[in-house]
Specification:
114 residues, alpha+beta, 5-stranded antiparallel β-sheet, binds 2-acetamido-2-deoxy-beta-D-glucopyranose
């Protein structure tokens, strides 16, 4: 509980700073541990949400790389591969998470053509 409060204060503080300076000054920070279970959870959320929107049946294969940015919560920008059962593709997705209320929203999900 205490940790959550500290995190909340941190988020409000940093997002206030980011807003003051304008969106363009917001910085993406590379995710160091791409195998972090929470990163996988965010990637799975992105693929599932995309499937719901598009009617496709993609399944997450793996996350290749990612960044996070603090914006009243956290934006995850992940590059991942997913398969529809017969062919595998790379996608870039952005998920907005407000962890303290367990909120996630898919902002974008687009194929990356190598
Ligand atoms: C998977 O994607 C490929 C390439 O877009 C397509 O040709 C194929 O029909 C798709 N397969 C399924 C099962 O949707």
């Amino acid at each position: 509980m205490k940790l959550e409060c500290i995190f909340l204060v941190f988020v409000f503080f940093t997002s206030a700073v980011a807003r003051k300076d304008g969106v363009n000054s917001a910085v993406w920070n590379p995710i160091e541990d791409i195998n972090d279970p929470h990163v996988t959870e965010v990637a799975k959320f992105a693929v599932t949400a995309y499937d719901k929107q598009s009617g496709e049946k993609l399944e997450l294969e793996k996350v290749i790389k990612g960044d996070t940015m603090v914006v009243t919560g956290i934006d995850y920008r992940l590059t991942l591969t997913a398969t529809n059962g017969s062919s595998s593709n790379s996608y870039e997705t952005i998920v907005w998470e407000k962890p303290w209320i367990h909120f996630k929203s898919l902002l974008s999900f687009t194929p990356v053509h190598a």
